[in-house]
Amino acid sequence: MSFLNEARFLIKTNIRDYGMYIALFVIMLTFSVMTDGLFMSSRNISNLLDSAGYIAVLAVGMTLVIVIRHIDLSVGFVAGFLGAVAAIFLTQMGMSVWLVIPIVLVFGIIIGLFNGFLIAKIGIPAFVATLAGMLIFRGALLNVTESTGTIIVNDDLFNALGNGFIPSLVEVNGLHLLSLLVGFIGIALYIYSEISTRRNKVKYGFDVISPQIFIFKLLFVSFIIGYITWVLAGYNGFSWTVVIMLLVVVVYHFLSTKTVLGRNIYAVGSNPEAAHLSGINVTKITMIVFGSMGMLAALSGILFTARLQSATTTAGTLFELDAIAAAYVGGVSSAGGVGKVTGAIIGAIVMASLSSGMNLLGVGISYQYMIRGGVLAAAVIFDVMTRKQRS
Amino acid sequence: MSDYILEMNGISKEFTGTKALDDVNFKVERGEIHCLIGENGAGKSTLMKVLSGVYPFGTYEGDIVFEGQVQQFNEINDSVKAGIAIIYQELALFPDLTVYENIFAGNEIRKGPFVDWNETIVRSAEMLKKVKLNVDPETLIKDLGVGKQQLVEIAKTLSKDVKLLILDEPTAALNENDSENLLELLKELRSQGITCIMISHKLKEVISIADKATVLRDGKTICTLDAHKGEISETIIIKNMVGREIADIYPKRLDHQFGETVLELSDWSAYDSQLGRHMVKKANVHVKQGEIVGIAGLMGSGRTELALSIFGNPKKYKLQGDMKINGQPVHFKHTSDAIKAGIAYVTEDRKGNGLFLINDIKNNITAAHLKGISHRGVLNLNEEVKVGSEYRKSLHIKTSSLELAVGKLSGGNQQKVSLGKWLFTGPKILILDEPTRGIDVGAKFEIYTIMNELIKQGMSIIMISSELNEIIGMSDRIYVMAEGAITGELSREGTTQEAIMELATQ
Question: What pLDDT, in 10s, does the model give residues A89-119?
Fold first, then answer.
C-alpha cells in the first residue's frame, strides 16, 4: 500500500476519532486568518486554554457518565457550591490550601457517590436525580454565600491554580525555559511510548502501520506539541490550569483505556445486560463513575474560584450544559459505550476556541450562542451519520 | 362443499437464505376453532405474520383468500379492517390506563372532536360481559392478573367487529384455572359465530377444544386433522410434529466414564415477584463431570429461567431449595460469584444480552475475564490480542480482523465469539442456551465438535435446546421441562422425539 493510500485508509476507518481534531484545526485556522494571526498569539492561546480548564475537567467526567448512558445535571452547582466551600475554608476558617483541596475533593466524591446511589441502587432516572441535585446545590451555594455575598480569596497559592504559571527558571529569548523543558519532555515521552508500543506489537507478531506513516505521525504530533509549547512559552509559559488539565487527561485516559475498570465502564455502556451477565457489577461501576464525576466537579469548582479569586453567588451556572456540549462535540454517543476522554478535552477546547475567536471578531453574544448551538448539533449529526455507516 | 372463511394457498416466505415457509396450504372453515401446531421454528408465527400483513403483500409468494376474495394486505391495519385480529403472547395493553381506555384505545368513540367517555364506559361494560369478565371498567390494567388481562385483550378485539380471531399461545402465561376459563370463552365465541385460530403447544388443550388442527413442520404443511373424524389424538399429533429422522449431523463421540457430580439442585424453585408466578418449580437436577445434560422443553417452559437462577440469579428471583457445587452448598449473590465458582452461561439471545455488539472481537472475548489479561487492574492489550487470536484459531472464527465489531459478524461466528468469551473464564460447568439457534448447518457441526472436545477435557455441559434431534443427538441425559417443572428425565439410549414431546406438552 502506498503512503497516500494507507493514509487515506487510516483516515477513513478512524474518521470518528480524527473528526474533531480536523474540526479543531479548521476552526483555529479560520479564526487565525480572520484575525490576522491574533487568534494564535501566545497571549490568546494561553487565555483560551485557561478559560477552557474548568469546563474541560467536567467534560472528562461527563464523558464517562454519558458512556454509561446516564447524565449529570448537578455538576454545575456542585462545582459552584464546593468552590464556595473552599473559599470559606480558606478565608473564614483559615485552613491551609494543602488541606482544603483534598477535603473539597473528598466532598465532591461523597456528593457524586450519593447521586450514584440514588441512580444505581434506588433506580431514580439520572436526569431526575441530578436535576434535584442541581436545585439542592444551587440553594446550598446561595445559603453559604448569603451572609457574605461574594467571598474574596486572598490566598496567592490557591489563586495560582486559576491564574498562575509554572516558574520559568530562566528566560531564553523571551521564552520560558521550564515550559520549554516540559514540552520537550512531553515530546520525548510521547515518542518513547509510541516506539515501545510498536516494538511490543512487533514482538507479538501483530500488524503495525508502515514505517513511513509511523514516522509521519510521530513528527506531526511532536510538531503540534512543540508548537503549542513554543506559543505558550512566549507568553507566561504553562499555566497551572493547563498542567492540571493535562494531568486529568493523562490519568483518565490511562484509566479508561488501559485498566479493567475502564473496560468495565465501556462494557456497561455498550450493553448493561450483557455486562451484568458477564459478571460485571453494574451498580458498582455506576457508583464509581458518578463518584469520579463528583470529584471532578469539586476540582472544577476549585479552578473556577481560583480563576476569579473569589466565590460568587452565581458560580457554576450552566457549567453542566457546557460540559455536556463539550462531551458531545468530543464524540461521546448517547447510545452508550462510545466516547473518549481525549475527545472531551478537544471538545472543550473547540467550544472555548469558538467563544474566544468570536470575541476577537466582535461577534455579538446572541450570535455566539446560536453558532455554538449549531456546532453542537453538527457534532451530533456527524456522530449519527458515522454510526450508520459503521453498522 | 365447505365454506372456508380463510384459504392460504401455496404460501412461501424466504429470509436471506432460509425458507421459513415452503408452499404452505392452510384452510379454515367458518365458525370453527382451528389449532395450528408445530415445534418452535416450524413457521407458525411467520404464517400468522403473513396473514396479518406484518410481512406486506409482495414479500411472500402465494394467495390469501379471505371471505372469498384475494387479499393484499400491505400493513396490519388492512387486515384489521378486513376483520382479522391477532392477540400475541405479549399483551399489547397499557398497564397504567383503565380497562375501558384500553378496550377502545386507538378506536375511540367520539362525539364531535371529543372522546365520549360515558359511552365508552357503557360499551366497555358490554364487551366485558361478552368475555365473562366481572371487573369494573375503571380498574387499571396493572391491577388485574394476567388471565384477566388476556380477557381484556379479547374484549378489545371483539369491540372491532372481528370475523377471524387469532390467538398466539394464549394460555402460555396463564395458570390452569385461567386457562380453562379462556378455553370455555373460546367455545362460547364459536357459538356466536366467530372463527378462531389458536396456536398452542399444549396438546391437551388442542384435543379438548379444536375442531381441526393443522401441523406445520420445517415451514411445510404436514397435515390437517379433523376432530370430528376422530383424527386428533396426542399420538397422531406428536408423530406428525416431529416426523423427520435424526440426520447424521452429530459428530461421533467415544463412550467415556463420567466423574463425580459437579452440580446438584434439590427442590430448586424460582419465583418471579414481578410476574407473580413460579418460573421454576421444585426442580431436582444433577450434572456429572464430563456429561452433556440436555434440557428440553417448549418456549416458556422455564429452561432459561432455570439457567439464570443457577447463574447468579441476575433477574432477582426469589430462590428456594439447595444448590451444591462439588458437594459444597453455594449461594451466589451476583453473576460474578457464579463465574468464580466455574459456571459459564452462553445466553440464548446473543445480540440482546450476550455480546457487546459495538465492541470488537477481542474485547468481547475477554470481557468476562479481564483478570486473565491484566495485572493489578492494568490491562495488557497485547496479551488481549494474543488471547483473541488463540480463540479465533481454535474456534474457527471467520473474520478479517480481531478489531471488527462483533455486530458485523454472521450468527455462527457471533456464537463462536460468545463461546470463546465464556471458555476464557475457564469454566467447569458450561450452560449453553440454544447454542445453535439461527446458525447454519456447517457452523452447527463445528459447535457440536467443540462441545465434544470440551467434555473430553473434563468440562460438564448443560445444553438447553428446542431442537429435539439436537437434544437427542448430543445429550448423555435429558431433562424435560414444562411450565417450570421437570416433567421427566430420560437417558440417551432409546429416547425418541415423541417421548420428549409428550413430556414437554404435559
Answer: 999 999 999 999 999 999 999 999 999 999 9
Residue A270: closest CA among chain B residues belongs to which residue?
B356
Question: What residues in chain A have their Cβ under 8 A from chain B's Cβ atoms?
Answer: 200-201, 203-204, 206, 258-264, 266-267, 270-271, 273-281, 337-338, 390-391
- Give the pLDDT score at B254: 65
- Which has the minimum average pLDDT: B89-93, B134-138, B315-319, B426-430? B89-93
Q: Verify whether the Cβ–Cβ distance A260 to B312 is below 8 Å.
A: no
- For A356-378, the pLDDT digits (tens) are 999 999 999 999 999 999 989 98
Residue A388 is predicted with a pLDDT of: 64
C-beta atoms of B382 and A206 within 8 A: yes
Please give the ipTM for the structure prediction.
0.85
Q: Is B404 on the interface with A (CB under 8 A)?
A: no
Determine the distance in angstroms separating the CA of B363 from the nearest CA of chain A, rounded to an integer: 9
- A266-323: pLDDT as tens digits: 999 999 999 999 999 999 999 999 999 999 999 999 999 999 999 999 999 999 999 9
Hey, are the CB atoms on A267 and B356 less than 8 Å from each other?
yes
For chain A, the three-class secondary structure string (H helix, E strand, C coil) is: CCHHHHHHHHHHHCHHHHHHHHHHHHHHHHHHHHCCCCCCCHHHHHHHHHHHHHHHHHHHHHHHHHHCCCCCCCHHHHHHHHHHHHHHHHHCCCCCHHHHHHHHHHHHHHHHHHHHHHHHHHCCCHHHHHHHHHHHHHHHHHHHHCCCCCEECCCHHHHHHHHCECCCCCEECCEEHHHHHHHHHHHHHHHHHHHHHHHHHHHHCCCCCCHHHHHHHHHHHHHHHHHHHHHHHCCCCCEHHHHHHHHHHHHHHHHHHHEHHHHHHHHHHHCHHHHHHCCCCHHHHHHHHHHHHHHHHHHHHHHHHHHHCEECCCCCCCHHHHHHHHHHHCCCCCCCCCCCHHHHHHHHHHHHHHHHHHHHHCCCHHHHHHHHHHHHHHHHHHHHHHHHHHC
Which residues of chain A neighbour B355 with C-beta distances below 8 Å?
271, 274
Tell me what pLDDT residue A76 has: 96
What is the average per-residue pLDDT within A350-354? Answer: 93
- CA-to-CA dists, residue B343 to A1, B325, B462, angstroms: 46, 10, 10
Whether residues A206 and B385 touch (CB distance < 8 A) is answered with yes
